[in-house]
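Encode chain A's predicted structure.
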Amino acid sequence: MKTNPKQTMGLLSESKVSKKKIESKHGFELLKDPELNKSTAFTEDEKQELGLVGLVPDKTESEDLQLRRVMMQLGNKTTDLERYIYLINLLDHNETLFYRTIMSDPKRFLPIVYDPTIGEACLKFGHIYRQTRGMYLSIERRGHVKEILQNWPQKDIRIICVTNGGRILGLGDLGANGMGIPIGKLQLYTAAAGVPPQYLLPLYLDSGTNNTQYLNDPLYMGLRKARVTNAELVSFVDEFVEAVQEVFPNCCIHFEDWTGADAIHLLARYRDKYCVYNDDVQGTAGITLAGMINAVKLKGTKLKDEKYLFLGAGSAGIGLANLLCSQLVAQGLKLEEAQARIHMFDVNGLLESTRQDLLDFQLPYAHKHKPTKDFVEAIESIKPTTIIGVSTIGGAFTQKVVEAMSRINQRPVILAMSNPTDHAECTALQAYTWSNGKAIYAAGVQFDPVHFNGQTFLPSQANNFYIFPAIGMAVFATAAKRVTDEMFIEAAQAVADQVPADLLKQGLLYPLQSNILEVEIQTATRIAKLIFDAGLARVERPKDIEAFIRQHVYKPEYQKFA
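Encoded structure for chain A:
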């Protein structure tokens, strides 16, 4: 990537829409551009200069008044899916007001624009579709990927979030309906960490689907064919990744919601050559590690003193296990010692040395042990201090599971990471009740506070949005050459460090979502410092890294035209 550091620094500092674009718009064309449209907030001078007189109401409203109207209209919606559709429509017409809304109350709105509402939105994506957003790249366009990417109007893309729809949340193969995920993920880059939206591109890489329901749905918008072979897929992704280097040379590729084996293998294929990462592998690992750091802080132990048992051995579980091993090695263990502390259990039972059906990346966690397909039996034999659910099987942490963990641990750590809500391995109420208040608990979705035996417990949401937007902001600001596991470990530690002691005592393992932007800025600052220290930045190191990060933060404020 041939970029002058000083030029890059100046370019990244520019978070407003280009002057050239502003000058090219006039009258009704201006109102149709969501980046520039101010709706009822144009001033009298702007209306006169831009040919807007008569095209908008003859008054000028403040952004606060516009936000008040949005809140009123949202209040008239009866479901979160209806609120999601309304907000996406707002984004299509007025980007600034959309982000002003989301960032005004992130705790309220992040669950609407993303998990858990996004799961329902994806299931119905072809039915609620209104307007195109992002790019759709079909495998039938092989050989022309570079030309297709050049059709995107913004020529300086810094982050592409790409999915093939193979494993959407815990919902499985949704094909083209999975496009809601990269759209939503990139909205979180902006709403949670302040990455300017014009540098972000959601993309669906269509290689077919094996979901017969969608193949028979006349409103399904993807290829009507079964998924291609692995060799064909890899060849297509190779062309895509290489084309990105030419068309968007400063771009980081964020892989999202690919099938487990593809996620692991594609990450390994590209990570040392290009600026790429996989959120399901590394982001999930980072946020879970942050919870583990605070769990041992509550217990007064260290990560290397613990023993871990995973329910689920796919990309998320393996990614977490690998990142955890890196941290354990940093705490003084040998790699083999770290791997020996981690056990895994999948649909075919405990991963152990006699299993013949394991994938290459699962083998380091297949230890000598009696075969078993009984998870409770595995708990009683292995005696883990922490169980981690990445199974996508709702209710898999049964009362017997939680009680077994409570018998062998004074403070069992129970992490039910699967989402959406009905896929969580157990609820907060179940974990605290069945453990008689002993559990240290977090989930991949948010549950309400639990009142039990005179105590109030604050269950945490181990959501990746604490991690990947901060990674994105740090990479964006520093123009990093690569994304490394060390960045996710640093992000995990930074997130864990921001939980106040009084809330930690009540079981809260992650910072409050209401303060998410400040949390992400502090996390991005620490990641950026690591990037500079590692020599991975392509911009000059500033004297004040936090101030440098804050320089790049998008603010949902209208442009001034006159």
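The first helix runs from residue 5 to 12.
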